[in-house]
Amino acid sequence: MKQPAVVTLLAGGALLALVPWLHLPAFYESILYLVLHWVLLATSWNILSGYSGYFSFGHGAFFGAGVYTTAVLAGKFDWPFLATLPMAAAVAAVLGLALGAVVFRVRGVRGEVFALLTLAVTFVLATIVLNTPIDGGPGIYLSGVQVPRLAPTQPGTFYLLALAGAVGALLVAHVVQRSRLGVGLFAIHDDEDAAEVMGVPTYRYKLVALAISCALAGLAGGVHALFISYVTTGEVFSITVPLTVILMSVLGGTRHWAGPAVGATAITLLLYAFTKGDLALAGKATTGAVLIAAILFMPQGIVPWLLSLRRAAAPAAADAAPRETVQAPMPASTPRGEALLRATALTKSFVGVQALAGVDIEVRRGEILGLIGPNGSGKSTFINVVSGHHAATSGAITFEGREIARLAAHRIAHAGIARTYQIPRPFAHLSVRDNVAAAAMFGGAALSASRARAEADHWLAFTGLAVKADALPDALNLHQRKFLELARALASRPRLVLLDEVLCGLNPAEIDDAVALIRRIRDAGTTVVFVEHVMRAVMALSDRLVVLDHGQLLAVGPAAEVMQRRDVVDAYLGTAHAAAGH
Amino acid sequence: MTLPSATLLAQSALSGLFVGALYGLIGLGLGLSWGLLRTINLAHFAFTFAAAYLCYQLVTSTGIDPLLTLAVIAPLFFALGCALHWLVQRFDVSPLNSLLLTFGVTAIIEAGIQALWSADFRRLESHYAQARFKLGALFVPVPELITLVVALALSLAIWALLKHTDLGKALRAAAIDAPIAAAFGVNQRALSLLLAGTCAALAAVAGVCLSLSFTLAPSQIYAWVGVVFAAVMMGGLGSALGPLAAGIVIGVSEALTMAITAPSWAPIVSFTLLIALLLLRPGRA
What we know:
A: six-stranded mixed β-sheet, four-stranded antiparallel β-sheet, B: 11 helices
């Protein structure tokens, strides 16, 4: 079976759909409804927040948008109940898209800032609903609304609706996790800037995930409106909804599609077990204690913890399936010497500093171009601007005849440019292989997930990291992390690779390794631009040198020639040295 | 829409100033903990209310002056804050997980309060609870004035401490890069325990001030979360004067909104301000 999880979900859902015909006492159906209701809500939250790390405290707003859409349409405009549900999902999704279109454009809105922003949106929405004819203050009674009989009893009907929603949400969460979208969201979780530069369309992915998340929350709200049959802003837009879904998801595990469902089931049943008699307070305190224990002892959540137990019990034997071998996947070599990339009058200003003051640099196809200069001369800025990490202030960059200076970073990656970072920035929660595979999926190569893994193994072998393929980046030393950066850049099959001080911090033997590796990269057909301070390697590798000083071009030419020039020596070693006549 | 009289507007602004001072006072410890300890302490609100209830209990059963109860309550909460932070340090809890951890603590404290004092509203009766004096055309309630003075004094004291003493510089250095600060001889663990205890003691002070002029109920813990977070974010994390300034801006604009439109519109002011600020200057937080 190709997708055992999908089959299990559908079969489990079909089996559970029979429950209303067992004629259990009605309160069982209501409890089960609540469990499924929270499974749906927590799973929907997790699709954006768990996968991408953008913790939203605004889930109450999207849930509430669904509640009020159904309440107004069914209660005031006499729409049939079931017809209001797609509208509830749509209104919540549109709200989410509108919010995301603004919020995700602002680079600084991450982490806690995003959490509080979404929380604030909840209160603003609640105030608007309360003070306009949508609610107006007294709340909306829905007891008169007709509920279709899908099951023998009314609680049974709600149960079936929640079941359909929960199974649907779990399927969506599962599909998303296995798809490009999921890999991209996990990459965003670990390092959004690196993900964007690697080719992940971060803005679009976050927006899509938010829209899916909101639509499902709106659906949950639409059903819940009739379940509670009397809606007020105080109850609907409370802080309880976001806190509960976060609690459930973290308890179950946010990095797995089934985590929130497990957490939701545990917490709902736990709370229910205490609601009988005087135990409600004890239930609240116990929930708090469970949360504390979970955070302290299982910070990853129940499901990942269980999976790690199972993995420890059964060592990785199943993973030995033969892999498709990949031919050296470099682009066909084209005539050397023509201009591959041309920067014209390129400037980049930061507040108060002009890092690039109008430089013209040409990179020729098939060469190794060394980029040197004193610290602060604009070398790294050049790489940051060409790769799209920073936007150019003015000037033009053409790559294979195409203007790229105004493109988003992920489009530049798609065009065939890859880079490494001076301080390695691996995705900390992805294995070494998945780090490289992600680059193969999202970069210029744009491979499918399974091809990407084979491609990743090829580049891990190329850089000598094959034995570490299943490790997390944390387990690598600096030398290996630098080579992981290289493997990641190469896996996207770039035509131009920008290396930012890959040799810095390595010992002499490791430098020799790296120099040989860079030669092999070029010999396979990729053009290399590298920023470096290790002069031995610079002289050994460079076909041509570009010297920058104070953001301006100081010299260009063959390495041996350039290093003889007086002004270059001055810039590097200071005029006193030159005056001393060395 | 008819504009209310100038006196009414001024009286509204004044009451907004007082409420804002309380936002700032609650936000002071919250922001310090967030900015300097990287712990988003949701339990700060529970501490505030627990202290308020303790004050209520002590005053009701012994009849002493509410402010004197701080002699007992502040050290108690200092210890509580240290204990909680020890746990956070011991298990190396990340900032987002600290939010969830302290939510768990909040749920337990809330249940405890409800078990001891029930879910009913409680009101502290003290000899100056109703005291007020007239300043020109305006009434100035004494308990709220005490809150304002306390908030101002504490914020200024902590600002001076952070800015001008070695202790304050060490705290700020440790917040920016704990391992490097430790390498320069900063005892980061001890300092952060001290700071966490101080934040909790500040919550206790805020709680006593809260009990002077507000009715207490366990469910009210959550009523303050949104607006105080707004004040802390606007004022700047780890800032001593910021929360008070932002709290007063929020309080006054809320009060004026209530006077000019309807009370139910008030929440939109603080949160719209917060959203605008976050979007226009996200680097701030």
